Amino acid sequence: MEKILEVKDLEISFQSYKGEIQAVRGVSFELAKGETLAIVGESGSGKSVTSKGIMRLLPHPFGRIKNGKLLLSGEDLTERSDKQMRDIRGAEISMIFQDPMTSLNPTMTVGSQLMEGLMQHRKLGKSEAAEIALELLRQVGVPNPQVRMKQYPHQFSGGMRQRVVIAIALACNPKVLIADEPTTALDVTIQAQILDLLKELQREKGTSIILITHDLGVVANIAHRVAVMYAGQIVETGTADEIFVDPKHPYTWGLLASMPKIHELTESLLSIPGTPPDLIRMPAGCAFAARCPYVMEVCRALSPRTKVITETHQAACWLLDERAPRIQPPQGARP
Ligand code: SF4
Ligand code: MG
């Protein structure tokens, strides 16, 4: 299994007038070639911040990488200059967002936006770039690409716009595509089409994907592996099967139990009672203790160590200690 990206002990903080926000607190994971890793968690769990950190797109001067390594094919991105990062972004790592309008330029035709990256990163001439742009629009399933090339983003539907964004993101065959809630703004049928498209393109191009989402339905559809984030840490990681069939962390149980039966939900509808801890003044012990139905005395005093369950499955919870009572996940968290 070829490792494309290794994130090692990543710490990211933000300066605020109240103090330092510890948004990402020691996150480590690996991404293999052609693999999709989903990072799931509620709003504010640090999943988007992690991805912006990988892209080196944290807001200046408030956000910064305090510690850790970001190894892209063995090269540490934390040591790259801003200029080098501009070349790496789009060419080696690309990102797509929830709202395609944020990544498209409303004043440029879709064709020129596609050609721009090709000319800049792949050093192609205009006519060659135009040819490839046309082919890319075809690949992502935009009908009448010849006509569409000359149109502006507002002339596209939401789903078609997201297809264009995917075409732009994949134009230079990046090693890694980070997709942050790529289908959240779309209706259910279009969501499924976009996920199918991502899967198909991944098969063809061997792209590795980091999918950031709060929607476990999306995860089940596309992810090979899942990392569950809470309060800036990964609390459980495993293959999609391990997370859905044999989840070990009470927070994962809560996420699974609050999976919508109908597909429409926003991040605020998650039904785990309580709110995440204050990331400026983190309490001692387990970050989930204040909301956990199974909290024990030890949880409030000491952070749980990460337990290895299988070669691919790990979780950080005191319930996995030999001395803890045996607790079964609640009904809703079972398949
Ligand atoms: Fe709950 Fe304790 Fe496990 Fe934290 S360590 S999730 S508080 S049981
Ligand atoms: Mg987010």
TrEMBL record:
One GO process term, biological-process aspect: peptide transport
Keywords in alphabetical order: ATP-binding, Cell membrane, Membrane, Nucleotide-binding, Transport
Cell location: Cell membrane
Membrane topology, record value: Peripheral membrane protein
CDD domains attached to this UniProt entry: ABC_NikE_OppD_transporters
Cross-referenced Gene3D superfamilies: P-loop containing nucleotide triphosphate hydrolases
Designated name of the protein: Peptide ABC transporter ATP-binding protein
Native species: Paenibacillus elgii
